[in-house]
Write a structure and sequence with these properties.
By secondary structure, the chain is of the alpha/beta class. About 40% of the residues lie in helices and about 15% in strands.
Length: about 270
């Protein structure tokens, strides 16, 4: 059994609110941390300091704040920069060491222009992140989401964008990247630039292409991938993140237990 720290991303229990997530995660054996989603935080009846107090009282740590970004629409660029700076301040107040960034969709923008917008944005907010002690983590998403959330779909692509920016790395997500023939060289190249890790398995067959499976219950070679992550020097959180509509909220407590058990089983010896 691993002693590595396991967290749950709030999207896993999508129908619960922030307070319910904190209460139940804190009561679930083996859950040490929470990945906070900004939309749930915004719906919380309290400010960011109240949220931080609630998490601390539950005996949890905040491992990440999810997400800011959407930089590929030039008309919204300055607004997204301002929003990301606010997210950085919130992450610091919550004690989150990492803020996840999404590039923005591939809609009406070419590859080169999109890349430049994302890099310009990260360079613009990096000083604020460094000031607050928050690491920026650009997450490459599966190509199914290229026109919804992210023009960045591979580890190498994400690394090319953040290269040389102090305080910026990547969020490595097993579900989003396991399909990539260059995933292993990408992990090796990333090394200490892996700021955080999301863990979920690939469901097959699957009527909903974005549905994810509990770690160890799907088709992705998770132990192999996470071994590569640790060989690259990663020593941080393992945050289980399931997008799924399979479960009724009444089933969430059992789902959380399955997530912990699955994560422990797929982590390398």
């Amino acid at each position: 059994m691993t002693t590595r720290r396991i967290a749950i991303s709030e999207i896993t229990t999508a129908e619960w609110g922030f307070e319910a997530d904190v209460d139940h995660y804190g009561e679930t054996e083996g859950v040490d941390g929470i990945g906070i989603w900004r939309d749930k935080l915004a719906a919380f009846d309290g400010d960011v300091d109240d949220a931080a107090d609630l998490v601390e009282a539950a005996g949890l740590d905040v491992c990440s704040l999810i997400f800011a970004g959407g930089f590929t629409d030039a008309s919204e660029f300055e607004a997204q920069i301002a929003d990301t700076k606010q997210a950085i301040e919130d992450a610091a107040a919550l004690g989150a060491p990492v803020l996840m960034l999404l590039a923005g969709p591939r809609l009406g923008v070419g590859v080169d222009d999109g890349n430049q917008l994302v890099r310009d944005a990260i360079e613009a907010v990096a000083p604020t992140a460094r000031e607050h002690g928050v690491e920026l983590a650009l997450e490459p998403l599966h190509p199914v989401d290229a026109t919804r959330y992210s023009t960045v779909t591979t580890i190498h692509h994400a690394l090319d964008i953040v290269e040389g920016i102090d305080g910026a790395g990547i969020m490595y997500d097993t579900w989003n990247t396991w399909w990539d023939p260059q995933v292993q060289p990408g992990i090796e190249r990333a090394g200490e630039d892996i700021a955080a890790v999301h863990v979920a398995d690939w469901m097959h067959p699957n009527e909903n292409p974005r549905d994810r499976e509990v770690p160890g219950q799907g088709e992705a070679p998770l132990t192999e991938l996470l071994s590569a992550v640790e060989d690259a020097g990663y020593e941080g959180w393992y945050e289980v993140e399931l997008f799924t509509e399979q479960y009724d909220p009444a089933e969430y407590p059992a789902l959380l237990e399955r997530c912990v058990t699955g994560a422990r089983e797929v982590l390398p010896e």
